[in-house]
Amino acid sequence: MNRTIGIVLIVIGAAMLIWTGFTYTKKEKIVDAGPIQISADKQKTVNWPPYLGGILLVGGIVIVATAKKS
């Protein structure tokens, strides 16, 4: 179980180091006046610091290295 968690952390950490964020499109209402509705697509960006990916990567390696073999 610990080994699986470690491997997942390694994969997530490596992905976070490669991709430092992502962008998505959200539809927001601009005007909502009865039957008339006007909406616009707005792009939102989610970023995370690269050191967080490094911490997850190192943590995953430590967990895998210290996990007992069953």
From TrEMBL:
Entry keywords, A to Z: Membrane, Transmembrane, Transmembrane helix
Bilayer-spanning residue ranges: 7-25, 48-67
Superkingdom assignment: Bacteria
Record protein name field: DUF3185 family protein
Native organism: Mucilaginibacter gilvus
